Amino acid sequence: xxxxxxxxxxxxxxxxxxxxxxxxxxxxxxxxxxxxxxxxxxxxxxxxxxxxxxxxxxxxxxxxxxxxxxxxxxxxxxxxxxxxxxxxxxxxxxxxxxxxxxxxxxxxxxxxxxxxxxxxxxxxxxxxxxxxxxxxxxxxxxxxxxxxxxxxxxxxxxxxxxxxxxxxxxxxxxxxxxxxxxxxxxxxxxxxxxxxxxxxxxxxxxxxxxxxxxxxxxxxxxxxxxxxxxxxxxxxxxxxxxxxxxxxxxxxxxxxxxxxxxxxxxxxxxxxxxxxxxxxxxxxxxxxxxxxxxxxxxxxxxxxxxxxxxxxxxxxxxxxxxxxxxxxxxxxxxxxxxxxxxxxxxxxxxxxxxxxxxxxxxxxxxxxxxxxxxxxxxxxxxxxxxxxxxxxxxxxxxxxxxxxxxxxxxxxxxxxxxxxxxxxxxxxxxxxxxxxxxxxxxxxxxxxxxxxxxxxxxxxxxxxxxxxxx
Length: 470
Hints:
Elements: H1 2-11, H2 14-39, H3 44-80, H4 84-111, H5 113-119, H6 127-139, H7 141-156, H8 161-183, H9 192-216, H10 233-267, H11 269-305, H12 309-345, H13 349-381, H14 385-410, H15 414-439, H16 441-469
Helix pairs in contact: 2-8, 2-11, 3-4, 3-6, 3-7, 3-10, 3-11, 4-6, 4-7, 5-6, 6-9, 7-9, 8-9, 10-11, 10-14, 11-12, 11-13, 12-13, 12-16, 13-15, 14-15
Membrane topology: Multi-pass membrane protein
Protein name: MATE family efflux transporter
Pfam family, one: MatE
């Protein structure tokens, strides 16, 4: 038993959970940049269509990510409390529900691509391209939904390496297929943006099969085809109790970012271009912090389920001790080297000058992001998702979005003011989450629940003893 506990402790260590997540996210970011570069060889219009369509796809992803994220936390909690069968059931339910949502979204995008493109305010000359891309790439949303459910479930068992290897393979195949379809390599006809859409769906399909194979053996009792009928209303309710506030929080972030980008568009192409380039640089800092935040969420959820509330409480601070210096150093490196990297993308002196001031603000922003993400994910891990939803509703829309418009657009203080508002939002949510975590509300509730369970168990044993004596 001690060997198993030691193995389990190692499996859920912060470093072993975090590094595969970071590599997976980093490669997705890197391949995404290469993907955009390759699409730019088709035309600027193709890049615009892909960019706007992907914003739509990201927004729709929150619908099935709600179920997958909630299920991931519940799975880690159940495995921590050694309720293996319940964790297995939750994973199956999440897969079915996510697939159903994905199928509905796919049908919507396949059947109504043109009205959707018009709704996105795309210029008339881009509609034919957008119609094709949305129909084909959007038709693969069911695959994205299934992949999200599978990878989240697998990751929540402590196996973060398998989704990483799968993502690496998927992205390599995607780039190879892109090259073939765009440039007509290996005897494949040039298909332009249509080929890029087909490449996206084909690489996702292969990744889905790989993840499904891993998923079937992810739990002690192998998942079989007949298990597709498995459903437990009580467990699904438990998933959604955690999941729906997570979904609202994710939607808040997606749509508040869309709103902020629209404010930048009002300011002008200079500001919009500067923010776009800064997004690329910031990702190096953000991905590291986000990987640690996801890892500590899995770790704390498992410890919470196991009743190790003191360990769960301290795990958050250990993650911050590791994460804050790493993120800060990364942000400092970006400040020092940022202007040289930006020079690879643009030679516009005005954009470079604007980005120089934003690089210094990014040095303040990234530690705030790390604090907020780690604390928010820690609260989510113990089921306190409604609190993170409420503060995100308040802070993202009033501080980040509302004040960005007022100070940046109405008052004319520009993109620097907008950055300042985003910084204020991160630190405000971080501070509120810190006091909530320090209060230990959900951890104390868990301790009381475990105490009652122990008292009931002792009572049953005593009662059984009386019967035996009689």
